[in-house]
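lol forgot to send this yesterday, sorry. struct tokens for the thing we talked abt
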């Protein structure tokens, strides 16, 4: 027993550097249809791991071996077997040189903020844009003193308000469930579903107060009280009053107004976050457009790293920007929050997926969104002030882009000891003219540059996978000077050296570039002219500014994948010695043990099976990480 405790103590401190513990389960080789070449066959081959927890140090090491994550699922393409080899691509932020197109994107945002951008050329009038930014029903319903007549709501506004009513109905139902759980409403009856209705423009001013507008209303409180009274009457009829509707409040004391007040008390924070005010009025739950907010504090574009939000915890950061001019200019905030579910973000994600990627509504659910972009195995590391951790900490984050209080884009990122890893971006299709894909990438690079001041080791921007055979993924090489990870020796090779090799063959051992180039008659040198021509090619390919993501493809295809049997797994160039297997860290019933200390407990057939599994795992993650991360064996 003493030896077991000693081994557990030794193992628990062997990985993670005091930043937690990595516990993973091996999902094995997987075959699935490919989202890049869309061959229709199961030609995409990868290795998978389920991460129960993962330290930022171990995930950094996995990235540098070609791994990526989608939620809590880790995956690495089998580069020799898969149809579309995916090379990890990164950029040293301090060396970044923006292209002419990228400079134009930054200037376009500046002109939008100072209102000199002619948005009519993008198919959206200035009045429509101002209306969307000022009176968006879901993201921000604050009322501006602009000249938009609220009685002249176009079809898009009606549709947007209708979507808001549907989403608020869902939130009220969840609030009713919460009130039942905490005893504020009866728990033994079936309460009615909520339905939020739009208020006609003619009645908005009539029923509003001050400079607000009554936008939406719900009468569920009347229905709840009617249901409670009916159930109580039936209970009295069968002489079972003592077994009737329970709760902290007697049913006879509940009135529509009191019930509405209970619900409003829970809804206030939600409404305020969306720019709405909510009140209980004569039993109705009314949602009003918020009164005009005070201007945001103006901070120049040379602002350093993000300062704490006034109304959030110290782990959330924001920077507020405008073009440095007058009060009529728009303001943009870039906020970094720890990964968590936010209904406003989900609504934007749903809108983006439906309109940009043409997903069907049944495939864009809260659960799929959480599984894909909210769930994370990374153990958060808070800032410590000694220069080894940036002010926001290490972990998974959502970077929000907010213009005059309206959420227009969200970048899902991981901030790790050496890099910022870009995972996904979704944005408001109404603001497509701002090229938010390119703009957010520039801001993420800037975030690395600013963080490096506080954390010198954090130098790189990882763009995910580069797939040379997929034209839509080639835009990533437009962020120069980038480099690709060799799939065999895990060395970084400049993109300009790798490109001629990838032009000839999909799978290349990039670290052999010197030998491979000498075998080819084409010159190695890349001239400035060809670089400019190549840059123009990238810009033309991405005019729609839809950033393609490797994680997106994994999410789409993960449900239709097959796990290969061991007999199907080919030989790997990575050799795992018996001594390396002995050092694999295994988790069994709460213990952390080296394989060498437990292998004698298995009979020959069990031992052979387990060693086959461990060898496959050690080849995939490397012998060093297999001795640091905990292999979950039950």
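and heres what i got for the seq, position by position
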């Amino acid at each position: 027993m003493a030896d077991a405790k000693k081994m557990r103590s030794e193992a628990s401190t062997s990985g993670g550097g005091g930043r937690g513990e990595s516990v993973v389960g091996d999902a094995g080789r997987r075959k699935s249809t490919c989202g890049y070449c869309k061959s229709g066959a199961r030609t995409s081959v990868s290795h998978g791991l389920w991460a129960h927890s993962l330290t930022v140090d171990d995930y950094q090491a996995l990235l540098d071996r070609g791994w990526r994550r989608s939620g809590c699922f880790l995956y690495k393409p089998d580069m020799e077997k898969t149809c579309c080899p995916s090379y990890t691509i990164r950029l040293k932020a301090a060396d970044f040189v923006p292209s002419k197109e990228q400079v134009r994107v930054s200037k376009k945002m500046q002109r939008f903020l100072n209102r000199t951008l002619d948005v009519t050329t993008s198919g959206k009038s200035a009045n429509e844009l101002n209306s969307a930014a000022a009176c968006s029903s879901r993201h921000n319903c604050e009322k501006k003193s602009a000249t938009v007549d609220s009685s002249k709501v176009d079809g898009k506004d009606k549709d947007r308000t209708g979507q808001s009513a549907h989403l608020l109905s869902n939130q009220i139902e969840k609030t009713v469930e919460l009130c039942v759980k905490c005893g504020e409403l009866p728990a033994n009856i079936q309460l009615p579903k909520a339905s939020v209705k739009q208020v006609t423009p003619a009645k908005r001013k009539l029923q509003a107060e001050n400079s607000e507008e009554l936008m939406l209303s719900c009468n569920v409180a009347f229905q709840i009280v009617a249901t409670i009274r009916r159930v109580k009457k039936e209970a009295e009829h069968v002489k079972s009053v003592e077994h009737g509707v329970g709760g902290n409040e007697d049913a006879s004391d509940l009135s529509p107004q009191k019930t509405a007040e209970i619900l409003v008390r829970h809804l206030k924070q939600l409404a305020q976050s969306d720019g709405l005010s909510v009140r209980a009025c004569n039993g109705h739950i009314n949602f009003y457009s918020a009164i005009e907010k005070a201007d945001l504090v103006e901070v120049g574009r040379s602002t350093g790293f993000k300062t704490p939000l006034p109304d959030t915890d110290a782990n959330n950061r924001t920077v507020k920007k405008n073009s440095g001019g007058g009060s009529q200019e728009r303001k943009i905030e870039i906020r970094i929050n720890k990964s968590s579910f936010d209904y406003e973000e989900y609504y934007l994600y749903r809108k983006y997926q439906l309109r940009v990627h043409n997903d069907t509504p049944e495939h864009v659910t809260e659960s799929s969104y959480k599984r894909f972009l909210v769930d994370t195995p990374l153990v958060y590391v808070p800032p410590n002030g000694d220069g080894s951790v940036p002010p926001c900490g290490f972990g998974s984050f959502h970077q929000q882009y907010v213009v005059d209080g309206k959420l227009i884009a969200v970048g899902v990122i991981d901030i790790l000891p050496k890099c910022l890893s870009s995972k996904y971006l979704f944005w408001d299709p109404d603001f497509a003219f701002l090229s938010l894909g390119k703009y957010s990438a520039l801001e993420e690079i800037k975030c690395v540059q600013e963080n490096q001041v506080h954390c010198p080791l954090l130098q790189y921007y990882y763009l995910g996978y580069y797939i040379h055979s997929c034209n839509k993924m080639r835009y990533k090489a437009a962020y120069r000077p980038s480099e690709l990870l060799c799939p065999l020796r895990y060395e970084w090779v400049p993109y300009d050296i790798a490109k001629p090799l990838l032009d000839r063959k999909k799978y290349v051992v990039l670290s052999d570039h010197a030998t491979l180039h000498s075998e080819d008659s084409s010159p190695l040198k890349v001239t400035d002219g060809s670089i400019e021509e190549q840059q123009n090619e990238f810009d033309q390919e991405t005019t729609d500014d839809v950033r393609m993501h490797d994680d997106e493809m994994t999410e789409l295809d993960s449900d239709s994948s097959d796990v290969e049997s061991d007999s199907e797994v080919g030989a790997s160039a990575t050799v795992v010695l018996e001594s390396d297997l002995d050092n694999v860290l295994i988790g069994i019933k709460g213990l952390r043990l080296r394989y060498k200390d437990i292998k004698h407990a298995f009979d020959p057939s069990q031992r052979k099976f387990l060693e086959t599994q461990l060898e496959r795992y050690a080849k995939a993650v490397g012998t060093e990480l297999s001795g640091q991360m905990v292999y979950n064996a039950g």
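Residues 88-111+297-556 form one domain. anyway ping me if u want another try
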